[in-house]
Every structure is written in C-alpha cells, then in structure tokens.
Amino acid sequence: MKTDLSITSGDGFLSISGVITGDNFPSTESFITDPKGNSVFLVVGFYKGSPFTSLRGDNNRDISIFDLKVSTDKNGNFTGVNFAGKDYNLDK
Length: 92
Hints:
This protein has one domain (about 1-90). The chain is mainly β. It has strands at about 1-10, 15-20, 30-35, 40-45, 60-70, 80-85, 85-90. Strand 3 (about 30-35) and strand 4 (about 40-45) form a beta hairpin.
C-alpha cells in the first residue's frame, strides 16, 4: 500500500486530500487522530478483497481517493468534518 497525502492547515481547520494505491487486501482503512485520541476516518477501500485475487498485482491501482476538511479547536482537537460540501459535527 502507498499513500500520497496532502495536509494544509488554516485558522481552525485541516484540509486533507490524497490517494491510496495498492492491492487492497485484507482491507484498507485510513484515519487521522487528534491529540485527545479522537479519530476521523479518511477512507475505506472501495474494492472487494480476496487473498486469491487481490494480492496478485503490482500494488499500483487506486484504492481510495479522498478530500475533506476537518475543523479543530485551538489545541488541534477535531470538532467537525466537511465532506462533499456537507458539515458533520463531532460529538464531544
């Protein structure tokens, strides 16, 4: 698995985008964690996997593509997520 990740920060947010490539087995999940230990899933792989069909290959197909914005408090802890133009507040 290979991850190309871009993170930029602004006043109270992180913009996170990237592409994960690989063979997608046994599963592909990516997330980020804040200083308090709260996690936000970036992506889950979109291919079905099997050890008989997924492991053969060159580890070079797109598994997941993501682009989201995570709002943070002054300490860098996550307070919400904006994905596909929709806001989601994180329970505290």
